[in-house]
């Protein structure tokens, strides 16, 4: 399958915009990459990259070629997975794009359970927000996505959509932890820290705060949910997270969560999706089905 090596090089050049960077990524010399690219262009009969002192970029022909390249690479992974499955020796690779909320609890549990049954299946998990996840599906960077969306029509095939509400997260000994649920105004009796704008939960929060007299800017913002959790554990601050990414309300850890009253914050949706028309490898399709079943059981409504 020598053509796959060429395809991987072309994909690396397209992603990095540089023959030298692609060569470093693929552990080859720039001259070897250049020769292979030129040989492919000569065989095709068209140049697929525009060259400039600043690097290379796909031209119109290249945009068609890269789609073919990535489809072929994805189909090859699927073929290998199916052949391995015939022998009863499940192996393969699964690439996932997910919102940060899926990282602390849900996905680690599901991936570890899957790999306990099929230890030869490897995973790649990329933290992506909704728009970036759609692009990653389109260019075959990931097989499937599990991302939070606060609205809008997805540009990919939605396998399952489950509702998500917002929860307040705080230290176990925080005064608000005595309540079973909270009104949003109660949280603003304390310092509020939040994820950066652009994250789905933050968008829901800001929509809910519109024209509220108690609303005020967060005292701290970050793109790291791990930092938010560590900060509230050590202070009297409160932060917010969608329910699948919030700690167990009855857990025994340093932090706990309490649901925000639905009258105060409208919910969003957690979307499990893949590229329209794409046939996934056996390993990926089985894992996606496992995720679908788990979510359907957890959120029957």
Describe the overall structure.
The chain is an alpha/beta fold and 301 residues long. The chain folds into three domains: 2-66, Winged helix-like DNA-binding domain superfamily/Winged helix DNA-binding domain (Arc Repressor Mutant, subunit A), CATH 1.10.10; 90-163 and 269-298, D-Maltodextrin-Binding Protein, domain 2; 166-266, D-Maltodextrin-Binding Protein, domain 2, CATH 3.40.190.290. The chain is 42% helix and 22% strand. It has ten helices and twelve strands. It has helices spanning 2-16, 19-25, 30-44, 60-86, 106-117, 130-138, 184-187, 200-209, 225-234, 282-298; strands spanning 49-52, 55-58, 91-98, 120-127, 144-149, 157-164, 166-171, 193-195, 220-222, 239-242, 255-259, 268-274. Strands 4-3-5-12-6 form a five-stranded mixed sheet, sandwiched between helices. It is elongated and about 70 Å long. The termini are far apart. One of its GO terms (cellular component) is cytosol. Belongs to the LysR transcriptional regulatory family. Residues 1-59 form the HTH lysR-type domain.
